[in-house]
tRNA 5-methylaminomethyl-2-thiouridine biosynthesis bifunctional protein MnmC
Amino acid sequence: MMGQALAARSSAILEPWLAGAERAAGRAAVVEATTDGWRVKGEDGAVLVEADAVVLAAGWGSARLMPDLPLSPVAGQADWIEGTPPPLPVAWGGYAAPTGNGMLYGATHDRGVKTPEASDAASARNQATLAAALPALAEAVDQTPAEARGRRVAVRATTPDRLPLCGAWGEAGLYVLTGLGSRGFCVAPLLGEHLAALIMGRSSPVQLDHGHRLSPARHDNVAEDH
């Protein structure tokens, strides 16, 4: 348990960061090299963006764009209820966090599952995890009507050594930031700064030896140019 833990609302952080940034809406389907950079195409073949450098930062979706990335799927379901927030975020293997109007809790870990579906069985597993540590909150879940409950499934991207992939991948100008597992928002801001520094040839906030441990070149199936 973490007695002084806090919960962050990601949208309140991301929107100021993205203010003024040029955005292109679409679902990327193809990333291809051009004579002077990279091109990203959507599912309809339309060009979404052309740039000197491209960063794949799509979680498990990065494996769809670059199948040779050393990534493995870990599916998970989180559940939430309205009206009964815990006083503080807590984590013990499971977790429970206030959402502003209720509580988010979970989550399941199903390795190797690429296309999960939300299920009552996974909800029961999450409630059992909650009951083992915080029985009063688990009882509150029991008393919550169905219309005040929700759940969501997604797939985490993990690597063989459980460390993220952050750095150049294959051809010049192609970079990846993925394989963050369940720790995405905890480490992504720092790794984003590190990757931007690599691309721009500037000093990184990440120590050199730590950067080497995060480099995709640590895996045998890719050679990274320096």
Remarks:
- The two ends are 43 Å apart (CA to CA).
- Residues 74-155 form one domain.
